[in-house]
């Protein structure tokens, strides 16, 4: 029998103490998975609609087949798992800076872990997504048809100060070097559409902001996140 509250893993990281825990909803008996970094809640399996829509909206804007896709931020795995539902995806690389998170999925601790690690198209990579975007692509490295990013709370509320440069015109320009000719960059944000950031994004790519609304069982009201979708301009 599963306890009402279980700590499945705890790891110290450079950004704070990372905790994965599982609790059982006393009303529905549903198992809910939560991730905390220090005292801050990062994510919950109660709310996965926007993470799934990040993949759905991003890939809907990509043309063609045999797609190479990069996910920045593994988390609970819902963005990666949703991307793999698209049969056009040939290769999926998932980068996470925290080896503990990769370990959770390799140990199949989370509901969608098996669907990711057992899919031969998926590779989990321990690296810093933001550092990868700053670098020039390695010779012979695939250009990505889609880059799907869910790490920070929003462009204004980053988990680490070193992430902030990605959300500038220069940082976004560096990211486009990793995209194919008509590649797509999609970004999850916990904040409402940010016109200043959207203007910056539009200065580099053709971009729109989508509001994703979902039922919030904790408040009994609707909540929303934002998914930005931007397409590489053809010179």
Short overview:
The protein is α/β, with parallel strands linked by helices and 235 residues long. It is built from 7 helices and 11 strands.
Walk me through the topology:
Layout: E1 5-13, E2 16-24, E3 31-37, E4 40-44, H1 49-60, E5 67-72, H2 78-84, E6 89-96, H3 99-106, H4 113-117, E7 122-126, H5 129-134, E8 144-149, H6 169-176, E9 179-189, H7 195-202, E10 206-216, E11 221-231
Parallel strand pairs: 5-6, 5-8, 6-7, 8-9
Antiparallel strand pairs: 1-2, 2-3, 3-4, 9-11, 10-11
Helix pairs in contact: 1-2
Description:
23% of the residues lie in helices and 37% in strands. The protein is α/β, with parallel strands linked by helices. The protein has one domain: Rossmann fold. A 7-stranded mixed β-sheet has the order 7-6-5-8-9-11-10. Strand 1 and strand 2 form a beta hairpin. Helix 1 packs parallel to helix 2. The longest helix is centred in the first third of the chain and has 12 residues, at 49-60. The protein is globular. The N and C termini lie far apart (60 Å).
Specify the oligomeric state: single chain
How many distinct domains?
A: 1
Average predicted local confidence, pLDDT: 93
Total strand segments: 11
Using brief descriptors, characterize the structure shown.
235 residues, alpha/beta, Rossmann fold, 4-stranded antiparallel β-sheet, 7 helices, globular
């Amino acid at each position: 029998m599963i306890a009402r509250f279980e700590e499945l893993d705890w790891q110290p990281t450079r950004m704070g103490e990372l905790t994965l825990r599982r609790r059982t909803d006393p009303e529905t008996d549903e198992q809910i998975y939560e991730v905390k970094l220090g005292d801050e809640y990062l994510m919950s399996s109660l709310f996965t609609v926007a993470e799934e829509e990040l993949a759905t909206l991003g890939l809907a804007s990509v043309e063609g087949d045999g797609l190479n896709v990069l996910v920045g931020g593994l988390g609970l795995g819902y963005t990666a798992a949703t991307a793999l539902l698209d049969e056009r995806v040939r290769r999926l690389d998932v980068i996470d800076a925290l080896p503990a998170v990769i370990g959770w999925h390799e140990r199949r601790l989370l509901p969608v872990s098996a669907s990711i690690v057992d899919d031969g198209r998926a590779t989990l990579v321990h690296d810093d997504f933001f550092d990868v975007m700053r670098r020039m692509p390695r010779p012979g490295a695939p250009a990505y048809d889609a880059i799907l990013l869910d790490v920070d709370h929003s462009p204004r509320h980053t988990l680490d100060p070193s992430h902030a440069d990605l959300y500038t015109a220069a940082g976004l320009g560096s990211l486009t070097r990793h995209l194919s000719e008509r590649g797509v960059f999609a970004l999850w944000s916990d904040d409402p559409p940010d016109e200043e950031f959207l203007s910056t994004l539009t200065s580099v790519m053709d971009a729109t902001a989508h509001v994703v609304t979902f039922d919030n069982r904790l408040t009994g009201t609707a909540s929303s996140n934002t998914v930005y979708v931007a397409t590489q301009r053809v010179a």
